Amino acid sequence: MGGVLSALLAIYIFSSRKASHFIDRMIIVLGIVMILLTLFVMFASNPPIGEALKQTVLPNTINFAL
Predict the structure, then answer these.
(1) 6 lies in a domain?
(2) Which residues contact 12 (CB under 8 A, 6 or more apart)?
(3) Which domain holds residue 54?
(4) Confidence class of residue 7 from pLDDT cuts 50, 70 and 90?
């Protein structure tokens, strides 16, 4: 199914005179989708944000021998 949709999209893009306008809009939409998916994963994974911030400012151990 994805291959068929990609092929139809490619045929439309290369046969259209207004392809640049379409590509610009598609890139904007795909960028928004990528940002929304990143936010979804950020909240769905439920990371310990408070603990990470605390350890960033006041770590339990400091290793100077890196």
Answers:
(1) no
(2) 22
(3) 17-66
(4) very high
